[in-house]
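Re: that chain you flagged

S.,

Sorry for the slow reply, it's been a week of failed gels. I finally had a moment to sit down with the sequence you sent. For the record, here it is as I used it:
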Amino acid sequence: MTRVVALLGLAGLAGATALVAREGVATVLAAAATAGSGVVWASAFHVVPMSLNARAWQLLTGRGGRSRRRSLAFFAKLVWVREAVNALLPVARVGGEIASARLMTRDGIRARVAVASLVVDMTAGLATQVVFTLAGIALLLRRSGGDRLAGQAVVALGIAAALAACFAAVQRKGLFAMAAAVARFLSGGRLAAIVGGAAPLDRAVRAVYRHPRRVVACAGWQLAGWAAGAGEVWLALAFLGHPVSVADALLIEALVQGASSVAFAVPGALGVQEGAFVALGAAVGLGADTALALALLRRARDLLVFVPGLLVYQAAEGRTWVRRLASSPRGVATRRSDVGGPRWRSSS
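Prediction finished late last night. Pasting the C-alpha coordinates below so you have them in one place:
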Protein backbone atom coordinates (compact mmCIF):
# COMPACT_ATOMS: atom_id res chain seq x y z
CA MET A 1 0.00 0.00 0.00
CA THR A 2 2.93 2.32 0.61
CA ARG A 3 3.84 2.11 -3.06
CA VAL A 4 0.26 2.85 -4.07
CA VAL A 5 0.19 5.93 -1.85
CA ALA A 6 3.53 7.07 -3.28
CA LEU A 7 2.26 6.63 -6.83
CA LEU A 8 -0.93 8.53 -6.03
CA GLY A 9 1.15 11.32 -4.53
CA LEU A 10 3.37 11.52 -7.60
CA ALA A 11 0.34 11.51 -9.89
CA GLY A 12 -1.28 14.28 -7.84
CA LEU A 13 1.91 16.33 -7.90
CA ALA A 14 2.13 15.89 -11.67
CA GLY A 15 -1.48 17.02 -12.03
CA ALA A 16 -0.95 20.11 -9.88
CA THR A 17 2.23 20.96 -11.80
CA ALA A 18 0.39 20.60 -15.10
CA LEU A 19 -2.34 22.99 -13.95
CA VAL A 20 0.20 25.61 -12.95
CA ALA A 21 2.23 25.11 -16.14
CA ARG A 22 -0.88 25.53 -18.27
CA GLU A 23 -1.57 28.97 -16.79
CA GLY A 24 2.10 29.87 -16.69
CA VAL A 25 4.31 29.50 -13.63
CA ALA A 26 5.28 33.18 -13.64
CA THR A 27 1.64 34.24 -13.93
CA VAL A 28 0.48 32.11 -11.03
CA LEU A 29 3.40 33.10 -8.81
CA ALA A 30 2.83 36.78 -9.61
CA ALA A 31 -0.84 36.42 -8.67
CA ALA A 32 0.09 34.73 -5.39
CA ALA A 33 2.69 37.38 -4.63
CA THR A 34 0.02 40.08 -4.62
CA ALA A 35 -1.16 38.73 -1.27
CA GLY A 36 2.10 39.80 0.35
CA SER A 37 2.02 39.41 4.12
CA GLY A 38 -1.67 38.59 3.78
CA VAL A 39 -0.70 34.92 3.43
CA VAL A 40 0.40 35.03 7.07
CA TRP A 41 -2.84 36.62 8.28
CA ALA A 42 -5.04 34.28 6.26
CA SER A 43 -3.06 31.31 7.56
CA ALA A 44 -3.25 32.54 11.14
CA PHE A 45 -7.03 32.59 10.86
CA HIS A 46 -6.91 28.79 10.87
CA VAL A 47 -6.60 29.06 14.64
CA VAL A 48 -10.34 29.84 14.70
CA PRO A 49 -11.63 26.57 13.15
CA MET A 50 -9.03 24.60 15.12
CA SER A 51 -10.27 26.17 18.35
CA LEU A 52 -13.88 25.37 17.49
CA ASN A 53 -12.93 21.75 16.77
CA ALA A 54 -10.99 21.64 20.02
CA ARG A 55 -14.07 22.75 21.95
CA ALA A 56 -16.13 20.08 20.18
CA TRP A 57 -13.68 17.38 21.25
CA GLN A 58 -13.36 18.73 24.79
CA LEU A 59 -17.11 18.36 25.32
CA LEU A 60 -16.92 14.61 24.74
CA THR A 61 -14.35 13.81 27.39
CA GLY A 62 -15.93 15.28 30.50
CA ARG A 63 -13.23 14.58 33.04
CA GLY A 64 -10.24 12.37 32.29
CA GLY A 65 -7.66 10.72 34.51
CA ARG A 66 -8.29 11.52 38.17
CA SER A 67 -11.15 13.95 37.64
CA ARG A 68 -8.87 16.68 36.24
CA ARG A 69 -10.58 18.57 33.46
CA ARG A 70 -8.36 19.28 30.49
CA SER A 71 -8.25 22.84 29.19
CA LEU A 72 -9.30 24.10 25.79
CA ALA A 73 -5.64 24.85 25.09
CA PHE A 74 -4.80 21.17 25.64
CA PHE A 75 -7.39 20.05 23.09
CA ALA A 76 -6.32 22.80 20.69
CA LYS A 77 -2.83 21.28 20.82
CA LEU A 78 -4.31 17.85 20.07
CA VAL A 79 -6.25 19.18 17.08
CA TRP A 80 -3.15 21.02 15.88
CA VAL A 81 -1.03 17.86 15.97
CA ARG A 82 -3.81 15.74 14.45
CA GLU A 83 -4.30 18.09 11.50
CA ALA A 84 -0.55 18.52 11.01
CA VAL A 85 0.10 14.78 10.78
CA ASN A 86 -2.88 14.17 8.51
CA ALA A 87 -2.06 17.10 6.22
CA LEU A 88 1.68 16.64 5.79
CA LEU A 89 2.33 12.91 6.12
CA PRO A 90 1.15 10.04 3.86
CA VAL A 91 -1.14 8.52 6.50
CA ALA A 92 -4.51 8.53 4.66
CA ARG A 93 -5.80 11.05 7.19
CA VAL A 94 -5.77 8.66 10.14
CA GLY A 95 -2.23 8.93 11.49
CA GLY A 96 -3.15 12.16 13.21
CA GLU A 97 -5.81 10.35 15.22
CA ILE A 98 -3.23 7.84 16.48
CA ALA A 99 -0.82 10.64 17.38
CA SER A 100 -3.43 12.61 19.30
CA ALA A 101 -4.59 9.50 21.17
CA ARG A 102 -1.02 8.88 22.28
CA LEU A 103 -0.70 12.43 23.56
CA MET A 104 -3.94 12.09 25.52
CA THR A 105 -2.88 8.90 27.27
CA ARG A 106 0.50 10.37 28.13
CA ASP A 107 -1.24 13.26 29.83
CA GLY A 108 -3.00 10.82 32.15
CA ILE A 109 -6.30 10.36 30.35
CA ARG A 110 -7.39 6.74 30.42
CA ALA A 111 -6.87 5.03 27.09
CA ARG A 112 -10.53 4.02 26.77
CA VAL A 113 -11.74 7.55 27.49
CA ALA A 114 -9.26 9.00 25.01
CA VAL A 115 -10.01 6.63 22.15
CA ALA A 116 -13.78 6.65 22.71
CA SER A 117 -13.90 10.43 22.56
CA LEU A 118 -11.78 10.31 19.42
CA VAL A 119 -14.07 7.75 17.77
CA VAL A 120 -17.16 9.85 18.43
CA ASP A 121 -15.34 13.01 17.36
CA MET A 122 -14.35 11.33 14.08
CA THR A 123 -17.92 10.14 13.51
CA ALA A 124 -19.33 13.60 14.20
CA GLY A 125 -16.71 15.11 11.92
CA LEU A 126 -17.69 12.85 9.02
CA ALA A 127 -21.39 13.55 9.52
CA THR A 128 -21.00 17.31 9.78
CA GLN A 129 -18.70 17.43 6.78
CA VAL A 130 -21.39 15.74 4.70
CA VAL A 131 -23.86 18.40 5.85
CA PHE A 132 -21.35 21.14 5.05
CA THR A 133 -20.63 19.69 1.60
CA LEU A 134 -24.34 19.44 0.81
CA ALA A 135 -24.69 23.09 1.83
CA GLY A 136 -21.90 23.94 -0.62
CA ILE A 137 -23.69 22.06 -3.41
CA ALA A 138 -26.89 23.94 -2.58
CA LEU A 139 -25.04 27.26 -2.79
CA LEU A 140 -23.53 26.24 -6.12
CA LEU A 141 -26.92 25.30 -7.55
CA ARG A 142 -28.49 28.50 -6.26
CA ARG A 143 -25.73 30.68 -7.65
CA SER A 144 -25.44 29.16 -11.09
CA GLY A 145 -28.74 27.42 -11.79
CA GLY A 146 -29.69 26.19 -15.23
CA ASP A 147 -29.73 22.81 -16.89
CA ARG A 148 -25.94 22.69 -17.11
CA LEU A 149 -25.81 21.95 -13.39
CA ALA A 150 -28.19 19.00 -13.64
CA GLY A 151 -25.19 16.70 -13.16
CA GLN A 152 -24.36 18.30 -9.81
CA ALA A 153 -27.97 17.94 -8.75
CA VAL A 154 -27.82 14.22 -9.56
CA VAL A 155 -24.65 13.92 -7.47
CA ALA A 156 -26.35 15.69 -4.57
CA LEU A 157 -29.33 13.34 -4.83
CA GLY A 158 -26.97 10.38 -4.89
CA ILE A 159 -25.26 11.60 -1.73
CA ALA A 160 -28.60 12.08 -0.02
CA ALA A 161 -29.67 8.55 -1.00
CA ALA A 162 -26.39 7.13 0.30
CA LEU A 163 -26.88 8.97 3.58
CA ALA A 164 -30.38 7.56 3.94
CA ALA A 165 -29.04 4.06 3.33
CA CYS A 166 -26.26 4.57 5.88
CA PHE A 167 -28.67 5.81 8.53
CA ALA A 168 -30.91 2.79 7.89
CA ALA A 169 -27.93 0.46 8.30
CA VAL A 170 -26.93 2.21 11.50
CA GLN A 171 -30.41 1.80 12.93
CA ARG A 172 -30.33 -1.93 12.19
CA LYS A 173 -26.81 -2.69 13.35
CA GLY A 174 -26.54 -0.24 16.22
CA LEU A 175 -24.92 3.16 16.35
CA PHE A 176 -22.22 2.25 18.84
CA ALA A 177 -20.91 -0.80 17.03
CA MET A 178 -21.02 1.11 13.75
CA ALA A 179 -18.94 3.97 15.16
CA ALA A 180 -16.36 1.58 16.58
CA ALA A 181 -16.26 -0.35 13.29
CA VAL A 182 -15.64 2.86 11.37
CA ALA A 183 -12.75 3.73 13.66
CA ARG A 184 -11.27 0.22 13.39
CA PHE A 185 -11.52 0.36 9.60
CA LEU A 186 -9.94 3.80 9.31
CA SER A 187 -7.11 3.16 11.74
CA GLY A 188 -6.35 -0.43 10.75
CA GLY A 189 -7.20 -1.62 14.25
CA ARG A 190 -4.61 0.58 15.94
CA LEU A 191 -7.11 2.61 17.95
CA ALA A 192 -8.69 -0.59 19.25
CA ALA A 193 -5.24 -1.90 20.16
CA ILE A 194 -4.66 1.10 22.42
CA VAL A 195 -7.58 0.07 24.64
CA GLY A 196 -6.98 -3.67 24.40
CA GLY A 197 -9.34 -4.73 21.63
CA ALA A 198 -12.63 -4.00 19.91
CA ALA A 199 -14.98 -4.99 22.75
CA PRO A 200 -13.62 -2.43 25.26
CA LEU A 201 -13.74 0.18 22.51
CA ASP A 202 -17.40 -0.59 21.81
CA ARG A 203 -18.21 -0.23 25.51
CA ALA A 204 -16.25 3.00 25.82
CA VAL A 205 -17.94 4.49 22.74
CA ARG A 206 -21.32 3.45 24.13
CA ALA A 207 -20.49 5.31 27.35
CA VAL A 208 -19.83 8.51 25.40
CA TYR A 209 -23.13 8.21 23.56
CA ARG A 210 -24.95 7.98 26.88
CA HIS A 211 -24.50 11.76 26.98
CA PRO A 212 -26.45 12.80 23.86
CA ARG A 213 -26.31 16.49 24.73
CA ARG A 214 -22.53 16.37 24.58
CA VAL A 215 -22.61 14.59 21.23
CA VAL A 216 -25.08 17.05 19.72
CA ALA A 217 -23.07 19.99 21.08
CA CYS A 218 -19.91 18.43 19.64
CA ALA A 219 -21.53 18.20 16.20
CA GLY A 220 -22.68 21.81 16.45
CA TRP A 221 -19.22 23.08 17.29
CA GLN A 222 -17.71 20.97 14.50
CA LEU A 223 -20.16 22.33 11.96
CA ALA A 224 -19.20 25.83 13.11
CA GLY A 225 -15.57 24.83 12.60
CA TRP A 226 -16.21 23.75 9.02
CA ALA A 227 -17.99 27.02 8.31
CA ALA A 228 -15.23 29.08 9.95
CA GLY A 229 -12.76 27.59 7.49
CA ALA A 230 -14.43 29.74 4.83
CA GLY A 231 -12.91 32.72 6.60
CA GLU A 232 -9.51 31.65 5.31
CA VAL A 233 -10.80 31.62 1.74
CA TRP A 234 -12.50 35.00 2.17
CA LEU A 235 -9.37 36.60 3.66
CA ALA A 236 -6.99 35.05 1.14
CA LEU A 237 -9.02 36.25 -1.84
CA ALA A 238 -9.33 39.71 -0.29
CA PHE A 239 -5.54 39.89 0.01
CA LEU A 240 -5.21 38.59 -3.56
CA GLY A 241 -7.32 41.51 -4.74
CA HIS A 242 -10.34 39.40 -5.72
CA PRO A 243 -12.84 39.68 -2.85
CA VAL A 244 -15.86 37.39 -2.88
CA SER A 245 -19.04 37.18 -0.85
CA VAL A 246 -19.25 35.10 2.30
CA ALA A 247 -21.60 32.71 0.47
CA ASP A 248 -19.06 32.16 -2.32
CA ALA A 249 -16.29 31.61 0.23
CA LEU A 250 -18.47 28.99 1.95
CA LEU A 251 -19.17 27.36 -1.41
CA ILE A 252 -15.48 27.08 -2.24
CA GLU A 253 -14.43 25.83 1.19
CA ALA A 254 -17.21 23.27 1.46
CA LEU A 255 -16.57 21.65 -1.90
CA VAL A 256 -12.77 21.84 -1.75
CA GLN A 257 -12.87 20.12 1.64
CA GLY A 258 -15.28 17.54 0.28
CA ALA A 259 -13.06 16.80 -2.72
CA SER A 260 -9.98 16.56 -0.49
CA SER A 261 -11.72 14.11 1.83
CA VAL A 262 -12.81 11.89 -1.07
CA ALA A 263 -9.15 11.84 -2.16
CA PHE A 264 -7.95 10.88 1.34
CA ALA A 265 -5.56 8.26 -0.08
CA VAL A 266 -3.67 10.94 -2.04
CA PRO A 267 -1.03 12.54 0.21
CA GLY A 268 -2.08 16.11 0.91
CA ALA A 269 -4.81 15.74 -1.76
CA LEU A 270 -2.13 16.84 -4.22
CA GLY A 271 -3.61 17.81 -7.56
CA VAL A 272 -7.15 17.13 -6.38
CA GLN A 273 -7.24 20.23 -4.21
CA GLU A 274 -5.74 22.40 -6.94
CA GLY A 275 -8.21 21.10 -9.51
CA ALA A 276 -11.10 21.77 -7.14
CA PHE A 277 -9.97 25.34 -6.58
CA VAL A 278 -9.79 25.94 -10.33
CA ALA A 279 -13.22 24.43 -11.04
CA LEU A 280 -14.95 26.21 -8.17
CA GLY A 281 -13.10 29.44 -8.83
CA ALA A 282 -14.54 29.46 -12.33
CA ALA A 283 -18.02 28.96 -10.86
CA VAL A 284 -17.70 32.14 -8.79
CA GLY A 285 -15.99 34.19 -11.51
CA LEU A 286 -12.32 33.74 -10.62
CA GLY A 287 -9.67 33.27 -13.27
CA ALA A 288 -7.62 30.09 -13.24
CA ASP A 289 -4.48 32.01 -12.25
CA THR A 290 -6.24 33.51 -9.23
CA ALA A 291 -7.71 30.13 -8.25
CA LEU A 292 -4.28 28.51 -8.43
CA ALA A 293 -2.81 31.38 -6.43
CA LEU A 294 -5.47 30.67 -3.80
CA ALA A 295 -4.44 27.00 -3.85
CA LEU A 296 -0.81 28.02 -3.34
CA LEU A 297 -1.80 30.13 -0.35
CA ARG A 298 -3.56 27.07 1.10
CA ARG A 299 -0.35 25.08 0.67
CA ALA A 300 1.57 27.91 2.31
CA ARG A 301 -0.91 27.72 5.20
CA ASP A 302 -0.06 24.05 5.62
CA LEU A 303 3.63 24.86 5.94
CA LEU A 304 3.22 27.87 8.21
CA VAL A 305 0.72 26.27 10.59
CA PHE A 306 1.31 22.53 10.43
CA VAL A 307 5.10 22.18 10.25
CA PRO A 308 5.38 23.63 13.78
CA GLY A 309 2.66 21.19 14.84
CA LEU A 310 4.75 18.27 13.60
CA LEU A 311 7.76 19.62 15.49
CA VAL A 312 5.69 19.84 18.68
CA TYR A 313 4.64 16.21 18.32
CA GLN A 314 8.15 15.00 17.56
CA ALA A 315 9.44 16.89 20.58
CA ALA A 316 6.85 15.12 22.75
CA GLU A 317 7.86 11.74 21.29
CA GLY A 318 11.50 12.58 21.88
CA ARG A 319 10.92 13.42 25.55
CA THR A 320 9.10 10.12 26.03
CA TRP A 321 11.93 8.21 24.40
CA VAL A 322 14.53 9.92 26.58
CA ARG A 323 12.56 9.19 29.76
CA ARG A 324 12.22 5.51 28.88
CA LEU A 325 15.84 5.28 27.89
CA ALA A 326 16.92 6.82 31.20
CA SER A 327 14.65 4.56 33.27
CA SER A 328 15.72 1.34 31.55
CA PRO A 329 18.36 -0.69 33.46
CA ARG A 330 20.24 -1.39 30.25
CA GLY A 331 19.66 2.03 28.79
CA VAL A 332 17.28 0.57 26.25
CA ALA A 333 13.55 1.28 26.13
CA THR A 334 11.66 -1.80 27.24
CA ARG A 335 8.49 -1.23 25.28
CA ARG A 336 9.15 -0.87 21.57
CA SER A 337 5.54 0.08 20.86
CA ASP A 338 5.96 3.31 22.86
CA VAL A 339 9.24 4.41 21.30
CA GLY A 340 9.66 6.59 18.29
CA GLY A 341 5.98 7.25 17.74
CA PRO A 342 3.55 5.43 15.49
CA ARG A 343 4.67 3.83 12.28
CA TRP A 344 3.29 6.05 9.57
CA ARG A 345 1.64 3.65 7.19
CA SER A 346 -1.34 4.28 5.04
CA SER A 347 -4.31 2.08 5.89
CA SER A 348 -5.92 2.73 2.57
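What I noticed first: The two ends are 7 Å apart (CA to CA).

Talk soon,
D.
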